[in-house]
């Protein structure tokens, strides 16, 4: 589904459902995975297997029994899927990721959603040919991730050059 990352549409839909459920749930602090498996038309066994895979990839965090949160890497992956026009990942999901997670985690509250989306799109474009789970994890570290969008022929101090490779 996403080249270089072992993610399929079921993984993406689980991340999306958790994102939207967290946004809509205010009382109990997180979504119920059984509800998600029913809402997503995924069997319970498949749901838990995919949840486990997402946790191992660092894209999902278990906060308690039957409660999960999408990690920053999971949010970035959802945005990358949006940039790739993957079915089921729409503008509403992208806006929830940008406004609800990326801006807060990176301390970019003073920036517009369009500015943050443009920056994340630059990250995506700079690495789409070599996208991997490891690269997604590296992209989480703002402002260090700006090094990934700088041109290769830019004269940089040796320490920064080392960090890019």
Outline:
With 165 residues, this protein is mostly helical.
Notes on the protein architecture:
The chain has about 160 residues and is mostly helical. About 55% of the residues lie in helices and about 5% in strands. It has a two-stranded antiparallel ribbon. A hairpin with a 2-residue loop joins strand 1 (about 60-65) and strand 2. Helix 4 (about 70-85) runs antiparallel to helix 5 (about 90-105) and helix 4 (about 70-85) packs across helix 6 (about 115-125). The radius of gyration is 16 Å and the shape is globular. The two termini are about 25 Å apart. The mean pLDDT is about 80.
Which parts are unreliable, with pLDDT below 50 for 5 consecutive residues or more?
none
Q: How far is it from the N-terminal to the C-terminal residue, by CA?
A: 26 Å
Task: Provide the gyration radius in Å.
Answer: 16 Å
Number of strands: 2
Q: What string gives the helices and strands in order?
A: HHHEEHHHHH
Please state the average pLDDT score: 79
Strand order of the largest sheet: 1-2
Strand residues, percent: 5-15%
Set out the fold topology.
Elements: H1 9-24, H2 33-39, H3 44-56, E1 60-64, E2 67-70, H4 72-83, H5 91-106, H6 113-127, H7 133-139, H8 158-164
Helix pairs in contact: 1-5, 4-5, 4-6
Keywords:
165 residues, mainly alpha, two-stranded antiparallel sheet
């Amino acid at each position: 589904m996403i080249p270089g990352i072992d993610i399929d549409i079921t993984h993406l839909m689980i991340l999306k459902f958790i994102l939207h459920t967290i946004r809509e749930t205010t009382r109990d602090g997180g979504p119920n995975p059984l509800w998600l498996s029913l809402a997503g038309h995924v069997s319970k066994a498949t749901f838990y297997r995919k949840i486990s895979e997402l946790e191992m990839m660092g894209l999902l965090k278990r906060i308690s029994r039957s409660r999960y949160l999408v990690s920053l890497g999971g949010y970035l992956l959802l945005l990358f899927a949006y940039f790739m026009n993957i079915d089921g990942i729409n503008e509403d999901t992208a806006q929830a990721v940008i406004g609800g997670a990326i801006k807060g985690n990176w301390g970019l509250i003073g920036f517009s959603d369009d500015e943050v989306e443009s920056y994340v799109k630059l990250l995506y474009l700079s690495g789409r040919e070599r996208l991997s789970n490891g690269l997604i994890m590296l992209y989480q570290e703002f402002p260090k991730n700006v090094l990934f969008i700088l041109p290769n022929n830019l004269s940089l101090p040796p320490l920064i050059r080392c960090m890019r490779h």
